[in-house]
Amino acid sequence: MDQTQPLPADWRDLFALTKPRVMSLVVFTGLCGLLAAPGSVHPVLGFTAVLCIALGAGAAGALNQWYEHDLDAKMKRTAGRPLPSGRLSRQTALHFGVGLSVFSVILMDLAANHLAAGILALSILFYVLVYTVWLKRRTAQNIVIGGAAGAFPPLIGWAAVTGDVTTLPILLFAIIFLWTPPHFWALSLFVRTDYANAGVPMLPVVAGITSTRRQIALYTFPMIAAAIAPWPLGLTGWVYGAASVVLNAVFLLLSSAVLANRAAEPAGMGPEKRLFAYSILYLFALFGALVVDRWVLA
């Protein structure tokens, strides 16, 4: 048992456990899945469903930090988090994460339906047990398989309205699933020393920079296919189709620049950092276009 007394903490430390930056993208894609779904939902119930997605994502983040407190302490970018800095105890993080998980799933079940609640529970368990506990410390493919955890929100939002899952939400899941490796590997190229020091087998650590750049480019192609597919399949209109073509063309150009980069070390605003920054904008814009398409052409 850890005998170290934690330093004084406040609500901001509990909030930090939820990984709010990551949560913002999760909440947005979940909201877009809800707004793009056919039919309608009462605004209060819709808000509650999105809140549950946020709480579930926050719970997964807290449990991730509870389990990875030792890794976080070894990496510069995470050493200031509440657990490695000593502001919170591991027990507090565990209770907070489990409590938030249970509450979010039960509330989703009451506000929406069993399917939405079940997918929310699956997403939390997948992130904690499959990605955090099983994959992250064992394989360089951790983010490839584990990326599914962040791809569930549009499915949850859609199911909260319709009570089912059809082709379009499955494609939305596939977009995020395939987007995660190039997005995350672009970032990991800049923090691979941190991962190496912590013993985490991220792709740049075990395969090197050149191989990682190649994988980023390779994953771009199936991502683009999944992102454009809803338009020719007749699942969306021209608004989404046009936006998707433009956004994916830019993504392809940036990933090609990463592949062509021969610099020994990523530095400054090089191709990798530009791709990482754009990848965040890309997902917000793509899912935003989906909602605009749904409401403009409704």
UniProtKB/TrEMBL annotation:
The gene is ctaB. Carbon 2 of the heme B porphyrin ring is defined according to the Fischer nomenclature. Belongs to the UbiA prenyltransferase family. Protoheme IX farnesyltransferase subfamily. Pathway: Porphyrin-containing compound metabolism; heme O biosynthesis; heme O from protoheme: step 1/1. It is an enzyme of class 2 (transferase). GO terms for cellular component: plasma membrane. The chain crosses the membrane at residues 22-41, 47-67, 88-108, 114-134, 155-179, 216-233, 239-263, 275-297. This is Protoheme IX farnesyltransferase. The keyword Cell membrane applies. It is a multi-pass membrane protein. Converts heme B (protoheme IX) to heme O by substitution of the vinyl group on carbon 2 of heme B porphyrin ring with a hydroxyethyl farnesyl side group.
